[in-house]
Specification:
Layout (H helix, E strand, L loop, with lengths): L6 H10 L1 H14 L19 H11 L3 H7 L4 H8 L7 H12 L3 H7 L1
Helix pairs in contact: 1-2, 4-5
Amino acid sequence: MAAKLTAAQMKAMDKKFPEARAEAKALRAYLEGGKLPAGFVVTRHRMPPDRDELRKIRKSLGLSQAELAGLLQTPKKTYQNWEQGLRAPLGAVGVLLRLLEMKPELVADLKAV
């Protein structure tokens, strides 16, 4: 359970992060059916594929762990760690895996690089 902030702590937070309250208020209004203020951008962060998704993506592409690791230019052991859930693919690799999931024809392009 989260600890409740005192009024003094809230005031200090408002001083330190004045935009946070405005952003929270704008998002709350949006979620209740209102419009976002002009220039307000909501980004969608997609998590990298988890171990089950990785295996599913790889198998749908018809590749071995070694082959997919080679296409991603990452060590086979690193890829194995991802599929075992010991680590997660981050950054551009996670995005590339999502692209391969959506557009498997890109495998041929990656092999040509």
